[in-house]
Amino acid sequence: MAQTNSYRQSSNGVADESPNMLVYRKMEDVIAHMQDETNGIPVRTVKSFLSKIPSVFSGKIHFFIVTVKRLEALHLGTLMAAHGYFFPISDHVLTLKDDGTFYRFQTPYFWPSNCWEPENTDYAVYLCKRTMQNKARLELADYEAESLARLQRAFARKWEFIFMQAEAQAKVDKKRDKIERKILDSQERAFWDVHRPVPGCVNTTEADIKKSSRMKQPHKTRKSVYGLQNDIQSHSPAHTPAPEVKEPTEEEIRDQIQHWQAQLDRHRLKMSKVAESLLSYTGQYVEYDPFFTSPEPSNPWISDDITVWELETSKEPGQQRVKRWGFGINEVLKDPVGREQFLKFLESEFSSENLRFWLAVQEVKKRPIREVPTRVQEIWQEFLAPGAPSAINVDSKSYDKTTQNVKDPGRYAFEDAQEHIYKLMKSDSYSRFLRSTFYQELLQAKKKVNNCTYHCSNNPSRTG
Amino acid sequence: MGEMEELRKEADNLKDQITEARKVVQDTTLQEAVAGTTLVGRVQLKTRKTLRGHLAKIYAMHWGTDTNCSKLCVSASQDGKLIVWDTLTTNKVSAIPLKSSWVMTCAYAPSGNMVACGGLDNMCSIYNLKGKDGNVKVMRELAAHTGYLSCCRFLSDSEIITSSGDCTCVLWDIETGTEKTIFAGHLGDCMSLAVSPDFKMFISGACDFTAKLWDIREASCRQTFSGHESDINAIGFFPNGNAVITGSDDATCKLYDLRADQELITYQDSGIMCGVTSLAPSLSGRLLLAGYDDFNVNIWDMLKAERVGVLAGHDNRVSCIGVSSDGMACCTGSWDSFLKIWN
Predict the structure, then answer these.
(1) In angstroms, rounded to a whole number, what is the distance separating the alpha carbons of residues B338 and B329?
(2) Residue B162's beta-bridge partner residues?
(3) Which residues of chain B register pLDDT less than 70?
(4) Closest partner residue to B283 among A12, A274, A290, by Cβ?
(5) How far is A69 from chain B, CA to nearest CA, in Å?
(6) Across the interface, do A365 and B271 touch by the CB < 8 Å criterion?
(7) How do strand B123-128 and strand B137-143 relate by DSSP bridges?
């Protein structure tokens, strides 16, 4: 189905249509196809027990099967029925079934794209007039009878007026042709099935409160089906009028220009490289993705066994976990056990100051603001001040900037220095770590982390 | 008047140049590049748990990330409650009554110590889960937005980022309750945000049909991505932090790469008419799980852009979705008032 909708936008790109409208337009495209004279669904009059059923089509949805698979066809069809574009002739519940049930198209007057928000007074008129007609097929269902009783109480003062309206409507209906009446009655009922659904059914006219507070053109809303004026306003907090979107000011356009210029000057990576990187990333991690590879020993939601999480929090990293540290420095830095092992290795080489600095800076970024100045001073003294015990090597530019920042210390005082140290670790310490016997042994699970011999692995109490 | 015209022309000219510059690096398309890769086999996930307890539409959920709470999540509902669930046992760890029932978002702090929520009250309320006497109480109310709070995400126990219907995103200092940085630039309501894996940047999706990448420290917008034909309701990072996934009312999801500065692919199907409300990638990034207004979740092979599965278990719109941090389970929340755990 070609999408020929044009989304009307004002100059700053904001649509005039609500999200529901977008869906209605697509559904109406499908309805148009279904109602096409040559290629659409055949609509006919069916002879039933004592009478004729006019203007129906069967639920056997061959039409849909041409375009989408059967289950999807049912899902899509049910969705369109639930929105009120067609309906089963003998049921208040709006779904599509792949059986002999008969359906009828809704008249465009009642389509949801007309922005209907019918009032309770209209519903009262409708239910009232139904009770005036002596047709078995028009008898009220239980939930409708309850609604009528409730509305009678709510509108007690103006019930006479509602009754008169119902009488007038019933009179008009009586004058219609019998067949026409059958069709119109069912369409009217289907309209109310959408706006006052059977208890337990979804009300498809509900909108997300985030969107409804932005809904433009409230004058487009049609509130009355039977021409009644209602003085009762709906007080939903979501229905506040949306503020007018203003044109950008000169300053805003200058900002935009600056932004676009910066974006234009960006270096862009070739698509082939990007595709390659996505392929290799997903390929590398697929064995860690529980939706593809079952976790060892089992997935807790399937087996109710939480061993896999206990292993995660234990200090002993499994081979698979150690292997992951080799994917990139970020993997070893984000895993607490990885950090610990990396630190241990560096300490054994007396070169742990870079990592300790990096960890300290990460930590200070999370501290409450009142603790930050003290921590910043401590970090400065330990790592960067002249004569620091754990002196780190930072380029002069970052060093100067940091010296300035420390005078008025904020969370990001060490950002530049941290960037520099991170790059250093990545190319130097991290590569050494991966090549080291220390790491290789962990990878081959030759050495146990807690210095216990292999035979201890079954012993729940750990030594060392 | 003339000057404004000039400026507008300049801005449009730059946008055209950017389009050209993007074309220059298109030596292939993602579709061509993955032509040799096999499509992922049919993915069939089952509902393992149903979390019952909310009495009205669920609008948001968020998984805990700390290893001690990787099975905990928080959900927000229009019944005016935030519930923290132990998703394995389905027990409610906390049920927090809210001042305003018009809640639209919730978040779990990475430490597991706090949760946050907000909505039509235009505020972001922070709750301390680890209070001394065991009671969960409001710790801070962050008020400054002039529009509804659509989304919030913690950077740490000290900082949180919010997005709002007032078209801005804000970085707050929780302790002092003040705005640290305002990120303005969107021309429509901001609907959703996501923080990068290194916590240095975040992305926002808005009703101006664009997604923006922001540098938290520099307080600037680094990149803008367009292409959607309607509101962007959901946004997330691809696990490697180099690409962005968006979901929109135009019934499509898109993948944008940060380094190529452009759209890589669109996830769409003629049989899908309803808007995307929420999305989450699987741990490897190979799968994209997206929740739609038609009550279903569709599972996409992210590289081949084809549907490989459907989760049909909710009786009303799927409003939120999340994959746990270890990738073991997916949680969906719906207007039908239930949360379901799938894998």
Answers:
(1) 16
(2) B152, B170
(3) 1, 67-69
(4) A290
(5) 9
(6) no
(7) antiparallel
Measured between CB atoms, does A242 come within 8 Å of chain B? no
**Which residues contact residue B277 at a Cβ distance below 8 angstroms, ignoring those fewer than 6 apart?**
A208, B233, B234, B247, B291, B292, B293, B317, B318, B319, B320
Contact, B267 vs B244, CB < 8 A? no
Interface of A with B in 127-166 (CB under 8 A): none
Angle B219-B224-B228 from CA coordinates, rounded to 5°: 140
Q: Which of B282, B229, B78 is nearest to A290 (CA)?
A: B282
CA angle B196–B198–B202, rounded 5-degree value: 25
Phi, psi of A176 (to 5 degrees): -75, 160
- Cα–Cα distance, B207 to A22 (Å, whole number): 14
B23 touches chain A (CB under 8 A): no
- Does A281 contact B7 at a Cβ distance shorter than 8 Å? no
Chain A residues with beta carbon closer than 8 angstroms to that of B155: 366
For residue A204, give the 3-state DSSP assignment.
Answer: coil
**Which residues from A are below 8 Å from B315, CB to CB?**
202
A57, A382, B214 from A104: Cα distances, Å: 6, 80, 52
Closest Cβ opposite residue A272 in set B28, B88, B303 = B28
Contact B260 A271 (CB under 8 A): yes
Provide the pLDDT for residue A217.
Answer: 55
Mutate which: B240, B324, B331, vs A, most A CBs within 10 A: B240
The per-residue pLDDT for A226 is: 80
**What's the pLDDT score for residue A246?**
61
* Preceding amide of A19 cis, omega within 30: no
* Contact: A269, B259; criterion CB under 8 Å: yes
A312 CB neighbours in chain B (<8 A) are 67, 70, 326
- pLDDT of amino acid A7: 35
Please tell me the predicted confidence (pLDDT) of residue A15.
44
Closest CA to B321 of B228, B293, B307: B293
Angle between helices A372-379 and A353-364 (to 10 degrees): 170
Q: Which 335-374 residues of chain A touch chain B by CB within 8 A?
A: 336, 365-370
Out of B34, B277, B287, the one facing A275 most closely (by C-beta) is: B34
d(CA B238, CA B245): 7
pLDDT mean values, one per 10 residues, chain A (464 residues): 33 54 89 82 81 79 57 84 91 86 92 90 93 76 94 93 92 88 92 93 88 66 71 43 63 88 92 96 95 90 87 83 94 92 93 94 90 94 93 92 90 92 94 93 69 41 39
pLDDT confidence of residue A138: 67
Count contacts between A and B (CB, < 8 Å).
258
Distance to chain B for A455, nearest Cα, Å: 28
Length of chain B: 343
- B157 and A19: CB-CB below 8 Å? no
Interface residue B56 vs chain A (CB under 8 A): no
With CA atoms as reference, the chain A residue closest to B286 would be: A282
**What is the pLDDT, as a whole number, of residue B4?**
87
Give the nearest chain A residue to B232 (CA atoms): A19
CA distance A269 to chain B (A): 5
